[in-house]
Amino acid sequence: MTSLPEKLAEAFRSAGVKSAYGDPVQIDGVTLIPVALSYYGFGGGDAGEGGAVGSGGGGGGVSLPIGAYVKSGGTARFEPNVIALLAVGVPFLLVAGRALARIIRALKK
User: Fold this and answer.
1) 28, 41, 42, 83: which has the fewest Cβ within 10 Å?
2) Cα–Cα distance between 87 and 84 in angstroms, integer?
3) Per-residue pLDDT tens for 54-97?
4) pLDDT above 90 coverage of the chain, percent
5) Which of 91, 96, 22 is CA-nearest to residue 63?
6) What integer pLDDT is reported at residue 95 of this predicted model?
């Protein structure tokens, strides 16, 4: 019987580059390669001691489309998905702004 970490490693062996870059798509002679920000998190489990019932954990992942590489002619460029970047950027700016405000308040005292 394999352990939980070995099962997770086998299940997500191909989760690296394949989850960040999609398969190229041809549209009217232009090649599009979708790009996403992907990350995963997992919990663990315990078998218990002395015949006690064990406990388990869980996990999950997120994939956010951030844009696409567009290749037409002899040039390639990155076209960002502005809506997705704003969805990620706005909460980050709010948290960073609050942290900066607290730092400035602490330095004034």
Assistant:
1) 28
2) 5
3) 777 777 777 788 889 999 888 999 999 888 888 878 888 999 99
4) 24
5) 22
6) 93
Report pLDDT for 1. Answer: 47
d(CA 54, CA 84): 40
Q: Say how many CA atoms lie within 13 Å of 20 toward its Cβ.
A: 6
Helix extents (H) in 1-109: 4-11, 17-20, 82-108
Which residue's structure tokens are 């290749």? 71
Structure tokens at 23: 């398969």
Strands of 75-80's sheet, edge to edge? 25-27, 30-42, 59-72, 75-80
Token pair of 102 as six digits: 């607290």
pLDDT for 51: 66
Contact yes or no for 67/83 (Cβ under 8 A): no
